[in-house]
Amino acid sequence: MSGTDKLDAQDRVILVQVKVERAKKHLRDLAAEILTLEHTAILAPDPDTGVPPHPIVLLHPNNLKKVPTLSFEVVTMAGDVIHNIRSALDHLARQLVLVGMECAPVIPLTQKELRRIEFPIAETLQIYESDKAGKTKRMLQEAVDAIDRLKPYKGGNDALWRIHELDNIDKHRTLFTLAHDFLFTSDWFDGSYLLRAENPLFAGVEAQVEQDIQLEIEKAVSQSQITQSNALLPSLHQLVDFVENLVVSFKPFLRNIYERR
Questions:
Q1: How many independent structural domains does the chain possess?
Q2: Residue 18 lies in domain
Q3: Can you tell me the distance from the alpha carbon of 182 to that of 162, in angstroms, rounded to the nearest whole number?
Q4: Could you tell me the pTM of the whole model?
Q5: Spatial distance between the Cα atoms of 70 and 48, rounded to a whole number of angstroms
Q6: How many CA atoms lie within 13 A of 31 on its CB side?
């Protein structure tokens, strides 16, 4: 902490960076899980009915296929990565509001108003402009202008839109899906779970957003080894790096009243 009774800009960056570091931890854990990839021979369900063949023909080669086998942790960790970087953006927004309240003390925000504070990201420019005021209330104008310059809406800033949409998919709709069948295991249930992905239904406004991530998961798990030169899940890495750099770039707007003198 600084020598004053106020948090300085570096203090606030650290408090936000905690969420980014958590996202990095989930990425490392995700890499470790994917290294456990195996392939298991399973009965191939009938393509029309989805029903496995009768046991009398179980061993016929045409009724067997090999599918990649992974822990369910893979898809949940991918969601955890996204959630933590989205949280980092929201923590940044709250710190910007607190700085604004310190530098221009007036009537404090109510708890309801504080709950509305978040880093504004929207589907369209029009929605962004209509929602921005409530989400950035009491931020200094310089901070709001910096957010505006990021164009945090679909078509304006693809990275921010992907983070926002993927977080909504994972939190409110469904697990990230995969392009082909995967056999999932976990330590909280016996046996395994075949997740079939023929004609998968991709939840979300922008289907391509989730498809990009799930195709990269599939590509990553198809590798026999993960090396330094073959970065795991490039989109997730890029999004984490993007948010980390964004947080640092907002440091000048996190200066307390003493640092501004």
A1: 1
A2: 9-254
A3: 24
A4: 0.78
A5: 26
A6: 16
